[in-house]
Write a structure and sequence with these properties.
The termini are far apart. The chain is elongated and about 70 Å long. Strand 3, helix 3 and strand 4 form a beta-alpha-beta unit. Helix 4 packs across helix 5, helix 7 crosses helix 8 and helix 9 packs antiparallel against helix 10. It contains ten helices and 20 strands. The strands form six sheets. It has a six-stranded mixed β-sheet with strand order 4-3-2-1-5-6, sandwiched between helices. By secondary structure, it is α+β, with helices and mostly antiparallel strands.
Length: about 350
Amino acid sequence: MNTKFPRRRRSLVEKFAGPEIDALLVTHPADWYYLTGFTGESGALIVSQRATTLITDGRFVGQAKGETAGVNVSLQKASLLESTGEFLAASRIKSIGFDPTQMSVAQLSTMRKATGRGCRWIPAQGLVAALRMRKDAQELAVMRRAAILAGHVVEHALTLLKTGVREFEIAAEIEYQMRKRGASGAAFETIVAFGERAALPHARPTAKRLKKNELVVLDLGAILAHYCSDITRTIYFGKAPERIRQWYKAVQDAQVAAIAAVKNGVKCGDVDAAARQVLVSHGLDKYFVHSTGHGLGLEVHEDPRIARGQTKHLEPGNVVTIEPGIYIEDVGGIRIEDDVAVHEDRIEVLTRFTRDLIEI
């Protein structure tokens, strides 16, 4: 029996148990997987000191029983919200915690009607997310492998960059290579952007063909055993002019500074500031239009955020991306991204592929 899921549920109960909340309603798929191992697409999880119950429809009941242990699986008989509300009312739970970021006003209204006045609904934001932020050794081992896999895929993708190849051809090959190397899929839609389109931070692949003397941005991530990786590399297809070399070095220096700032106990906003200060010194800060990074784990974007003004302190087990970039209209963009794990007394860069400028 896998003991990690019961252990996680016990840790969760310790966070909310007491006079205020009797049980917590979990409606986010990544959260219920973290707590039970259930990988289905529809469900509602109720966690209390006494028991854990998963309510789902007929498509997933058998799957839920096979994937979980110590979890009561209940077949929904009406809509998911109505069935969940009826279960809570029948259980005589007097106070239920819920994450307001994972439930709409309409959904909450339906639940309240189903449970009646005898149940209080108490906002309890981020309780599972706080547990998920601190990866254990087993999770880190999987994420390390996912990051290394992503680096191998980048290396392969470089061999495909030829005059006339289209962005979506490269993207398709990247996602095929992920699966061929053991990933269950892409962590997000692969970004492949040539030339001026590289100035779009989240450019979706198009039929644009690669020409000589263009910037190429490759941003990809693999899902391996449920955990995500995320890596970006920028290539120059040709011999890079001095201006591009200077810009690339500035972004590289910004990333080095930010990675150096990543430490146990450091504020996330201070890591972001370390990258920005370097770009300010190069007069390029106005071209840096997003945050320096984000948490990584079961989802490609999760807590903690590495952004301006973030006061959350990094903790052992956090895995964050460090990805400064600059985006210059009519020229292109330069971004370098790596996955960094925080340990008690050190940090570990999980992605292993070279960060130096590559010219093809």
